[in-house]
């Protein structure tokens, strides 16, 4: 029986404990005059992903989206939302934990954030902005590459060189 208990203890666990809206802000610095503009606004979107350990085997993963709409040089609106999730993750190999937090968890959280941002923009009186799907695997790989390049640049600027 103890062998069966050991196998159960070693089985990987991945459970969503909670998904919640951590932060949402809306700014309309040029309202109401901006509603009289005839030109369609240009939209800029930025994305950020984060994760932190809360307790043994419990992690918070966050996705932050900032949407800025401008008509010419005037900001029509700026919406920033941060959606988070608390996940129980146990018995996952160390080399798989970071990708799970950087890819798997954001894939679960993002649809909620997308809906919350579209709702906030609509409630602000603007046509909804439908955010595109995000390939968090590609986003994760790009972040790793940028981090590696940054560390390489730091090594070069410090005068250090790698020796084989």
Q: Could you please describe the fold and organization of this structure?
A:
By secondary structure, the protein is an alpha+beta fold. It has helices at residues 2-10, 94-123, 136-157, and strands at 13-27, 42-55, 58-71, 74-90. It has a four-stranded antiparallel beta sheet. A hairpin with a 2-residue loop joins strand 3 (58-71) and strand 4. Residues 160-164 have low confidence and may be disordered.
Short description:
The chain has 164 residues and is α+β, with helices and mostly antiparallel strands.
C-alpha end-to-end distance: 50 Å
Largest sheet report? 4 strands, antiparallel
Mean pLDDT: 90
Which descriptor suits the 3D outline?
A: elongated
Figure out the total of helices: 3
Per DSSP E runs of 2 or more residues, the count of β-strands stands at 4
SSE blueprint and pairings:
Layout (H helix, E strand, L loop, with lengths): L1 H9 L2 E15 L14 E14 L2 E14 L2 E17 L3 H30 L12 H22 L7
Helix pairs in contact: 2-3
Considering the chains and any ligands shown, give keywords for the structure.
single chain; 164 residues; alpha+beta; four-stranded antiparallel beta sheet; elongated; disordered C terminus
């Amino acid at each position: 029986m103890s062998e069966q208990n050991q196998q159960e203890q070693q089985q990987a666990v991945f459970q969503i404990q909670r998904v919640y809206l951590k932060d949402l802000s809306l700014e309309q610095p040029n309202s109401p005059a901006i509603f009289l503009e005839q030109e369609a606004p240009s939209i800029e979107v930025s994305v950020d992903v984060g994760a932190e350990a809360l307790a043994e085997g419990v992690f918070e993963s966050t996705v932050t989206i900032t949407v800025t709409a401008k008509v010419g040089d005037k900001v029509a609106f700026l919406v920033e939302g941060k959606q988070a999730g608390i996940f129980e993750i146990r018995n996952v190999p160390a080399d798989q934990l970071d990708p799970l937090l950087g890819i798997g968890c954001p894939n679960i959280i993002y649809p909620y954030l997308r809906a919350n941002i579209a709702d906030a923009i609509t409630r602000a009186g603007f046509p909804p902005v439908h955010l595109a799907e995000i390939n968090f695997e590609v986003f994760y790989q790009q972040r790793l590459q940028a981090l590696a390049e940054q560390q390489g640049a730091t090594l070069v600027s410090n005068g250090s060189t790698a020796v084989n």
